[in-house]
Specification:
Layout lengths: L5 E10 L47 E4 L23 E6 L26 E6 L37
Antiparallel strand pairs: 1-3, 1-4, 2-3
């Protein structure tokens, strides 16, 4: 059995003082409700690095969960475990490690509402959890989780870590 931790995110980025620069930070806006794993693109304004959505057998496809999602992607009791959104009705999950695959990573990104300005101070925060699971998918920890700001277009061919 492949095991991997999934971490669920709610993003918040502000210039001090200002509004949130992250579009759809709680994944509440959607083009359609999720019905299966790998449907990160159902949430508006969010992307992965390989463009595989809906999940077509590719890799590194974050999962979108919603309280009105169907089957395995309906909250709070998903196919991967039980998780409640910190606020709102939706969450996004990424696999940060897979036991049978060395150097497996999933990434999720959004284009900010406006560019960051040199010399300005920003506050970045996000919430994450590995939920509760007796399925072998939860209970793992990771030693690094971060945020990258880039002007470059980042690409992930398979599920490899970005060389950053």
């Amino acid at each position: 059995m492949k095991t991997f931790p999934s971490f669920l995110f709610f993003f918040y980025l502000t210039a001090i003082p200002a509004q949130n620069l992250v579009p759809n930070p709680g994944f509440e806006s959607f083009a359609l409700l999720p019905s299966g794993y790998g449907e990160w693109c159902a949430a508006t304004d969010w992307f992965n690095l390989n463009g595989d959505c809906p999940h077509n057998g590719g890799f590194a496809t974050p999962d979108y969960f919603h309280t009105m999602g169907e089957g395995l992607v309906g909250l709070p009791h998903t196919g991967l475990g039980t998780i409640h959104p910190r606020s709102g009705e939706a969450i996004m999950a990424i696999a940060t490690w897979v036991e049978s695959l060395i150097d497996f990573r999933e990434y999720l990104f959004a284009r900010l509402h406006e560019p960051l300005e040199v010399g300005s101070i920003y506050r970045v925060s996000f919430y994450y959890s590995n939920g509760e699971s007796n399925l072998g998918y939860g209970g793992y920890g990771i030693d690094h989780l971060g945020v990258l700001f880039s002007m470059d277009t980042l690409v992930q061919a398979f599920a490899e870590p970005l060389p950053l």
